[in-house]
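re the bet — no i am not wrong, look at it urself. input seq straight from the record:
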Amino acid sequence: MASYNLKVIEYKEFVQYRFYSRVITRNDEDEIMDINNSGAGESKTQIDLDEDMVVPFDGMPLDQCMDMDLLPSVEELEKRKARSMEVSANRTVQTIYSYAQSNKWDWFVTLTFRRDLKFDVTDYDSVVKKLTTWLYNQRRKCPDLKYLFVPEMHQDGAWHFHGLLASADALTFSDSGRVAIGEKAYIRTDENKDHETIYNMDNWRYGFSTATKIGSSSKASSYICKYITKDVIRHSGRRRRFYPSNNLEKPVVTEHLFHGDDLEELLESMADDINYIKTQSIDDAQLTVKYVQVMKGETVE
């Protein structure tokens, strides 16, 4: 079984080093998931409340099991369900982060659906089908197109999508006459004309669309992860919660096992090149993880 106490993850614009306070084996990995970082795969299952209700003895009546305290309490079941949802959300975020940070992006887009369409815009399966069909058609026009989309649900139950695009030269974008100031849109005036232009995607016919050019690919990659909320996890159920093109690059991950003080000496040697550092304690795993980020182009001896 492979063991390590340093994991190195190479993304498009930076390299992340994870220093572990103890040696990690494969069995530990589920315990050290962190919503703020990437590197783990998408959760294959999400435990529902009923899945936790396992009758311990075949043939024993349910009420008799309850009397013997052989089943978890309602409070314990709710706690397990909440924990399952949290783990599922963390893994989804980490996978999105991993895809996003491994590619360089040109556009941040939002695609919405009109209410007068011939399908239910509150039905997750229906909107996903429309989105994925549309993306397939765009790839036929633009074979090198890269994309990564995530869902968000309006307060009224309608779904829309946010996405990152690259190599989208064959798609057409029209100036909307508005500019982005912070997270809000304003009609362009002489006073605000220097702010970022908001475009519309001419190819999107199902509703309203916005597109802005990306300045920092890394920041946009981190930003898109915020849309994976508890509501998205709850209402999407077991369905997929992100939609990547099949030509996306993935991070290069290597694992290393250091002995004695070698790991601490390596960390000290990186001091001048670090642009971000964070330490996290994971009590359940009796573990501390130090996350160190070094931008590409900077060398670590």
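see?? Residues 34-60 have pLDDT under 50 and may be disordered. told u. also The two ends are 29 Å apart (CA to CA). so pay up
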